[in-house]
């Protein structure tokens, strides 16, 4: 006999009324669309590590999807002057980046011998063609129109990238917020579409110098400035983890996407999303 009070006995879901009949009710798997997600892994080789490689990228893309969602929310909150909400969302974006950073520890367990067993199967595909990654870069303000080119075979992706370039970047909405708070922000700095990355501007350096010199007088800007530094700090760690993992796995081979590989990724380490926020530290 099953005794529900016997901790050693097998648990019977029926004793506490746990639902077990799902033929006409929404189940866990129905709600989460698991039949689609868990059948979306199609290794092209019989190499054991290809599943790791696929899942690592798919989970990264899921986190990137959430990151874009939260970045859009944060950007809108700043446009609407809802700074506490924006702070909460930007903190979440940094935590998501931290998830992506931790995930490298799993992929790092794949050796060059493991990877070369299926690398050829990847053809010319590469993270270089990640639409969501490019949308994140564009949303943050690293706007290089030339990066649309690998998406030209897919008009929907091109449209999404162009729409993003038409919107103000996260940095631009922060600088417009500063203008509303009385700071001198030249119009061209917040103009869209911007097909180039933001470069350091003297007026914006001065803006952050004033904010950081007297935080209590400019608390909202001080807080958002630190949130942006946090975000870029995590993003830099992602780039560093990526290039280090790449060197560890393929050395200095060319990338499947056609770039020089590590040499290209090292160049990307120099990207500055919010240059004045970093450079102002030197003059404080
Ligand atoms: C063994 C694992 C990996 C290797 C060897 C690798 C290699 C490379 C290389 C060589 C590039 C330069 C483009 C090219 O010519 O292909 C690149 C770009 C890229 N990879 Fe990876 N990668 C790895 C894992 C990942 C993972 C897990 C992600 C996560 C989504 C990722 C996302 C990207 C992105 C977004 C770019 C474009 C970066 C940019 O343009 O700044 N990669 N990767
Ligand atoms: N670029 C990598 C291949 C690679 O890592 C990759 C291939 C297909 C889909 C995502 C990838 N990840 C990052 O670039 C290589 O050159 O080995």
TrEMBL record:
InterPro entries noted in UniProt: Trp/Indoleamine_2_3_dOase-like, Trp_2-3-dOase_bac, Trp_2_3_dOase
Binding site for heme: 242
GO molecular function: heme binding; L-tryptophan 2,3-dioxygenase activity; metal ion binding
Pathway as given in its UniProt record: Amino-acid degradation; L-tryptophan degradation via kynurenine pathway; L-kynurenine from L-tryptophan: step 1/2
Reactions listed under catalytic activity: L-tryptophan + O2 = N-formyl-L-kynurenine
Keyword Lyase recorded: no
GO biological process: L-tryptophan catabolic process to acetyl-CoA; L-tryptophan catabolic process to kynurenine
Co-factor: note: Binds 1 heme group per subunit.
Residues that, per the record, bind substrate: 53-57, 115, 119, 256
EC class of the enzyme, as a word: oxidoreductase
EC code: 1.13.11.11
Family: Belongs to the tryptophan 2,3-dioxygenase family.
Assembly mode: Homotetramer.
NCBIfam families in UniProt: trp_2_3_diox
Protein name per its UniProtKB record: Tryptophan 2,3-dioxygenase
Organism: Roseibium marinum
Lineage of the organism: Bacteria, Pseudomonadati, Pseudomonadota, Alphaproteobacteria, Hyphomicrobiales
Gene label: kynA
